[in-house]
Amino acid sequence: MIIKKLTLRNFRNYEEETFVFADGINVLVGKNAQGKTNCAEAVFYLCTGASLRIRHDRQLIRKGTSGAYLCAETESRVGRVLLEAELSENGRVLRVNGNRVARTVDFLGNMRSVFFSPGELRIIQDGPDERRRFLNLSISQTSKPYAAALLRYNRILDQRNNLLKEKDLSLVMETLPVWDEQLARSAAVIIRHRRRYLERLAPLARDAHSFLTDGRETLALGAEGDDSDDEEEIAKRLVRALSASLEHDLRLGFTSVGPHRDDIRVLIDGTDARGFASQGQTRTAALAMKLAELEIFKELSGEPPVLILDDVMSELDLVRRKKLLERTVGVQCILTCTHAERLLYGKDTNKIRIREGKIC
Fold it and tell me: Which domains does the chain have, with CATH numbers?
């Protein structure tokens, strides 16, 4: 799976520019704040229908303009696919091969990507929200049922939380069981998919981490929450848990149990990485998880995703840079840096210099 051409119009700091990418390593070179990360972000957006950095699409539109346009010409084992996104102050339009798609779920999976930047250290350092975000973005790119269940779950969760704030207790008691049943059914899909995904991710992340550290440290990932693989049983358990926590939830005004509260255990040599890992250990663990994600995408789709490495090389020592590049063989890579090191040059390297939102 590769992206052949990327066209941006009034996106971030780009007025209008077209990038032509090679099959191997594409190095976006330039000083800080020139638009390198914006280009990488555009690729990720066309893969997932979402930005890693902002919540509202209007923030992606170039200042002084009313709308932005992104287009990627991609090629995979099933043929060529054209992906387009038109952004405006009032919303957006997504198209696949010229056909408008109403749901983000239908946009996902046409082009897959793995994105890594220094900001992704949040997966290790920050709270459970960041690890759930990692799982949600990753699994949604490979499973439409998961993406659909996640949308349903979040919508129902909002409804339940609003009901918990209702002052009419009789209305709450009458209506809540209906929401609980619906919430539990969507939750069961999410929980089962997450558990199966983590069962695949954990050994691959362990192996990638061992490769990056020359076997000096061991990375272990584990799931928290329900350990069943039966959706019906998971749903029944969650309905019981929701009922048991009702009094507590009414006091809080929100739902305190469910997959929106789950977490991943990240251990380095048996110790919780969140509280005790050094900056270097954190970076290596996060990178190992991303390399494992890349391998899962390969397995599930039969071809590698686009690998986006945003300002990563400056954060790694020479040994780890070389090891990382070894893992990019046979993968289309879009890599941003302030200066192209000799290590990055080769017959498969396509260097693109960017200055003030333009290709030089």
Answer: 1-112+306-360 (3.40.50.300)
